[in-house]
Design brief:
Elements: H1 2-14, H2 18-31, H3 38-50, H4 53-62, H5 69-82, H6 87-97, H7 100-110, H8 116-129
Helix pairs in contact: 1-2, 2-3, 3-4, 3-5, 4-5, 5-6, 5-8, 7-8
C-alpha cells in the first residue's frame, strides 16, 4: 500500500528517522500513480535535511500544494537556506495566510518535527528567510 508506506515514511522522517523515512517516501512516490503534492513536499524536506538544496528546490517546486501552510514553511526554509529570491513570495504568503508562523514559528515547527536539532535547523533557515522567530 503506497499510501500507507508514504505516510509512515513521512512520520518516521519527521521524528528523526530521516534515512528510513525518506527511503519509504521515495518508494511510495515511485509506486504511486499520481502523487498529489504530499510526497513531493516530504521529499523536499528530506533533501533539505540532507543539505541538498538543489534537490530540495526541485522537489518543492514540483509540489502542487499552494494553499498549504506547511508547504510554504518548507519552501521558505529551503529558499532561505539557499538564498533563492523566491523566498520573498513564501514569506509574504505565510504572513498573509498563516500568521501563526509570525506569532510562534518555533512552536509551529516543533508541533510537526520531533527532534530539537531538526527544529533548530528549520528555525535557523526560517530566520534566514526573514521569518521572525523568538528564542525559547
Amino acid at each position: 500500500d503506497s499510501e500507507l508506506m508514504g505516510e509512515y515514511g513521512f512520520r518516521l522522517a519527521l521524528h528523526g528517522e530521516w534515512d528510513d523515512g525518506c527511503a519509504l517516501m521515495s518508494r511510495a512516490y515511485e509506486r504511486s500513480p499520481g502523487p498529489a503534492g504530499y510526497y513531493e513536499s516530504g521529499l523536499a524536506l528530506c533533501a533539505y535535511q540532507r543539505g541538498d538544496m538543489t534537490e530540495a528546490t526541485m522537489w518543492i517546486r514540483k509540489s502542487p500544494l499552494p494553499n498549504n501552510p506547511q508547504y510554504h514553511a518548507i519552501a521558505a526554509a529551503i529558499y532561505g537556506e539557499s538564498g533563492d529570491p523566491a523566498v520573498a513570495a513564501e514569506v509574504a504568503w505565510l504572513r498573509d495566510h498563516a500568521p501563526q508562523y509570525f506569532d510562534n514559528a518555533r512552536a509551529e515547527i516543533a508541533y510537526r518535527i520531533g527532534r530539537k536539532e531538526d527544529v533548530d535547523r528549520m528555525v535557523a533557515s526560517l530566520k534566514k528567510a526573514g521569518v521572525p522567530v523568538s528564542e525559547p
